[in-house]
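Side project, low priority. Logging it here so it doesn't get lost.
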Amino acid sequence: MGKVPWQLWALLLLTVPVGIGWYAFSQLSLLDFSGCQSVDESGDASESTRLYCAQIAADRETSADLAKAIRLANSLSTDHPLRREGDRLIKRWSDQLLSMGETTFQAGMLDEAIAMVQAIPSSTPTFLTAEDRIRSWRDTWAKAEEIYTEVEQSLEADAGNAVFQEARRLLAIDNQYWQTTRYQELMELIQASKAAKNQQIARDRQKPATTKLVTNDAFSAEQVMEQWRKEQEQEAIAQLAKVKKLAQSNRIDDLKAAVAAAEEILYGTPQYEQAQQLIDRWNQEIELQEDRPYLNQAVELASKGDLNSLQAAIDQAQKIYYGRTLYNEAQTKIDQWYAQVRQLQSQSDPISGASLGNSTNYPIPQPVNNQQ
């Protein structure tokens, strides 16, 4: 028998690992959603299966699924060839959880936000940021509750128009829920208190004096309330004109001042709905002006094309958290840059850098054990 040509050996060396890797991935692909539901971090499933199912879970993009994905990826042994890929994914999913937590906090759900970010492992760089964020959230919430309570106490003490200034302190709180929902709730409470006071004044005017009859020019309760409503509408008209002029420069500081002033237009006036529309538009413009520099800098960093620059670009773009105007645009670019990172890692280290979908050296996964 003659010698086997070296070209054939070379071909075998190239194709056999690819074939094994493709078989491994095809076996993983047979795991449908229900199959992955039974996979946990206990170690019954192979490590490649756990990482695959972690990605399946993370693709659903809920906080619970991201937390599960992190647990699965974090269960890989430190010396496993997939651990480096797992750590990279854990970092990404932790950043997503932090962003979701911030959005949840801004929506007024403090406890839920804290629970989300507490799923971030202490071994990740994001963990310290998450701990700082939790402390900041709790401090912000406590301060907002303190202001709200003080305004309620001032109303009971009949502090007059000073309560409006006290209530405006909520607009300086770094939380959209307290700046909008709770602030408007407080303004309506103040409005109702003033209306009740005016009604009482009207009733007092209708009571006959002990020594004289009721005069013909005594105001009825309805007349007093109508007069008060007209005064409120006139104030709202003047306030709306003021905020529109304030926002004309389109500078961030002026837009924020316009939003704060527009929040003072009381619910129930004809100008209220228009004020709310302007607030939404100006908040969107504020977000664009605040976040566009982050995204532009990220794009500039990513254009260099090396691993460090791409990772720096991703970190920069992730400052734009979920719910912001530019969030979807930022996430699209982050996905593109992650793909570039994985491609570069695959070129330098095919085993630890390649993704599950295009690997060539992953071991054949063990079947998922669904039996107890």
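Brief comment: The chain has one domain: 26-207+220-358.
Revisit when time allows.
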